[in-house]
Amino acid sequence: xxxxxxxxxxxxxxxxxxxxxxxxxxxxxxxxxxxxxxxxxxxxxxxxxxxxxxxxxxxxxxxxxxxxxxxxxxxxxxxxxxxxxxxxxxxxxxxxxxxxxxxxxxxxxxxxxxxxxxxxxxxxxxxxxxxxxxxxxxxxxxxxxxxxxxxxxxxxxxxxxxxxxxxxxxxxxxxxxxxxxxxxxxxxxxxxxxxxxxxxxxxxxxxxxxxxxxxxxxxxxxxxxxxxxxxxxxxxxxxxxxxxxxxxxxxxxxxxxxxxxxxxxxxxxxxxxxxxxxxxxxxxxxxxxxxxxxxxxxxxxxxxxxxxxxxxxxxxxxxxxxxxxxxxxxxxxxxxxxxxxxxxxxxxxxxxxxxxxxxxxxxxxxxxxxxxxxxxxxxxx
Length: 381
Fold this sequence. Notes:
single chain; alpha+beta; Endonuclease, Chain A; 16-stranded mixed sheet; 16 strands; 38% helix; 25% strand; globular
């Protein structure tokens, strides 16, 4: 059963870099009572200290702050940094911290990026708290977030409270009312396989199947499951115009090679591929028929589908989707190189084909093997 869209929202698109972090500081400084802040990466760098200082100012004026960061993504945070946050009353903790940072980075990871302010607005997307997502050391990594006001803010707060209290199954349920007074239609989507929350991955499959004209995907770590890849290729063979924006320069070299292995199959099926060149691409976006937009932390790969705690916002609004699609088309035109089949075939030698095949298999198998390492229960962490 499809999750219902709720009306009555205000939605704004926010870009990574100075725009996002200026807005985040502004929202923190304007908060009066409470902030729920959960993210995968929170670094002790210029950007991390900028946000930490804003949170400390808020706590000192009486704002109740719950800050949870992932135990692997934020593993390098020092005790001194954490103690400075706690000393002003900030409720800080790690989600599922490992005793050491093993190469497997095993376990169920808190991958979503969400901040809830005063039960009145929420900022949800894929942007971590670190210099590389800011315009500090050159151009920020490409990513997006949505600032949302309306009914789903309460839902986002409940999810944050569930994670903070380590309670999911016995947490009191609260049915949100569908506001019919106008505004933008939005739904908050989760993926947490451990809790049988597969809303985002299911929606991706359904939306790709039901697309009638156009699919635009922006994906940072694009290793789709065989099923999702088949759905995508079937849509292409039905004549849907499909554009995928991938990273021309990845922070994970093996991932870049693994994604490259899929190019031939996609191009043969008339899927257009664009490589973003201006910086590292970290965004996770899907636009269907210029009607529905999905933005958040969910990557199209095994980790997001079966291991990580993910959160996306889906927006059902023609005007918003059209505006975002136009922006992405300009991005493809100005900041990307389109990969054409004839050029790809010329460059894709037997040796490169073999090396990318090995990379693809290594990434795919390692993602599946990671699930075997997860033995914990979120209520015990």
